[in-house]
Amino acid sequence: MDKRDGFYGDLDQFDRKIIDAVSEDARISVTDLAEKIGLSKTPVNARLKRLVQEGYVLGFRAVLNPQKLGLDHVAFAEVKLSDTRESALNAFNAAVRKIPEVEECHMIAGRFDYLLKVRTQNIRRYREVLGEKISSLPHVASTSTSVAMQSVKEH
Question: What CATH number should be reported for the domain whose range is 73-147?
């Protein structure tokens, strides 16, 4: 069984193996996938299509190298809102999704409301994104920033 056993709900061992394989290599061919999990191509293809249709697999994407792209500055912005009613949260959520530099946004239970992972070229660009985009999001009362010195594990 996989180290994440228990996180798969009602999926059988073959479905779990398919999910593990495509999460490691989204470009794996159906032929290689079938060989890896021990089924023929036709049932593997059908299972993969079903996993996508049922929402277990949301999509396939390329994992880019941020350093090669000149985007190796990572900062985490803690955001405190002035209003946490549902309409305010919805307005913030919709607006933050439009900021391309924000890689991740999580609502937090704690001393602040949201934690944003922001990736930019450098600290100067981060300051611009923080001042011009993040601070002007709906209902933002305050922000606090922590800068990552090294990424030990991502994705």
Answer: 3.30.70.920
Residue type at 14?
F
- With 0-12 / 13-18 / 19 or more C-beta atoms within 10 angstroms meaning exposed / middle / buried, residue 71 is middle
Pairwise CA distance, residues 4 & 151, whole Å: 23
Neighbours of 140 (CB within 10 A): 19
Q: Over the stretch 108-134, which tens digit does the pLDDT of each residue have? A: 999 999 999 999 999 999 999 999 999
- The CA–CA distances, whole Å, from 141 to 90, 93, 147 equal 16, 15, 20
Counting Cβ atoms within 10 Å, is residue 115 exposed (0-12), middle (13-18) or buried (19+)? middle
Q: Say what angle helices 30-37 and 13-24 make with each other, to 10 degrees.
A: 130
All structural domains of the chain with their residue ranges? 13-53, 73-147
Q: Which CATH class is domain 13-53?
A: mainly alpha
Average predicted confidence (pLDDT) for the chain: 93
**Tens digits of residue pLDDT in 47-75:** 999 999 999 999 998 888 998 999 999 99
Over residues 73-98, the mean pLDDT reads: 98
Q: What type of residue is 89?
A: L
